[in-house]
Amino acid sequence: MRLSRFFIDTPLASGELALPDAQAHYIARVLRLSPGDRLQLFDGSGREALATLIEVGKRQVRVSIETLFDGQPESPLAIHLGQGLSRGERMDWAIQKATELGAREITPLLTERCEVRLSDERADKRVAHWRQIAISAAEQCGRSVLPVIHAPQPLDQWLQGADADLKLVLHPVAAPLTEHPAPARLALVIGPEGGLSEAEISAAQQAGFQSVRLGPRVLRTETAPVVALSLLQYLWGDL
């Protein structure tokens, strides 16, 4: 039977540990686990631990960490996804699936056709929300390292700073993905609802990005990262 798995935002070490409130509430009130039940913990750095519940109370849940071990290795393909910022659940879905599919870094991009505008305060709250989406996805999928969720950036700024062996921008009229050589580090741009403008495609190409298509159909902004990352991991990663 698979053990329940939880992220702990502190380096794991042997000994006893009081779990954070959110995890404690879920363990006590939702899963209704009891002392003696076992859990799996990870700290996002690649380390994992097996632990046993020693106290399950209304105010506190404590575990005894018994075994530390290296978790699931990351894909050999380091992908930095630049995802056009979209509304609500579409962006949450993209973050969730990109985490499950092994993206190392995710940057929401502000583009010409972006329908979302964020103040600094709202941006900070959204980044915290997206990080929690990534944590939940990592807990579920067994990933031991959390992706880095960057603050939203203007597209042109991100294009100039992207550091990768292969830089790709999705475009419906372009060469197939399989025509490119295998990279170790890859940067990928996906547009928002409405796509990237021709000027933005041109700016990406001038910054060293090569246009690539995924097939004959135009995909929604939340579908494109699922298909693209799956193909990339299949070609050059760990699928």
Can you characterise this structure?
By secondary structure, this protein is α/β, with parallel strands linked by helices. It has 6 helices and 12 strands. The strands form 2 sheets. Strands 6, 7, 8, 9, 10, 11 and 12 form a 7-stranded parallel beta sheet that branches. Strands 1-3-4-5-2 form a 5-stranded mixed beta sheet. The protein is elongated. About 35% of the residues are buried. The mean pLDDT is about 90.
Please render the helix and strand layout as text:
Elements: E1 5-7, E2 15-18, H1 21-30, E3 38-42, E4 47-56, E5 61-70, E6 78-84, H2 88-100, E7 105-110, H3 120-141, E8 148-149, E9 153-154, H4 155-161, E10 166-176, E11 185-190, H5 198-206, E12 210-213, H6 224-236
Parallel strand pairs: 1-3, 6-7, 6-11, 7-8, 7-9, 10-11, 10-12
Antiparallel strand pairs: 2-5, 3-4, 4-5
Entry summary:
By secondary structure, the chain is α/β, with parallel strands linked by helices. 31% of the residues lie in helices and 29% in strands. The strands form 2 sheets. Strands 6, 7, 8, 9, 10, 11 and 12 form a 7-stranded parallel sheet that branches.
Sheet of most strands: 7 strands, parallel
Number of helical runs? 6
Radius of gyration, in Å, reads 20 Å
Overall geometric form = elongated
* C-alpha termini separation: 24 Å
Give the DSSP E fraction (strand runs of 2 or more residues). 25-35%
Low-confidence stretches: none
Number of strands: 12
Structure classification? alpha/beta
Order of helices and strands: EEHEEEEHEHEEHEEHEH
Helix share, percent: 25-40%
Give the overall pLDDT as a whole number.
92
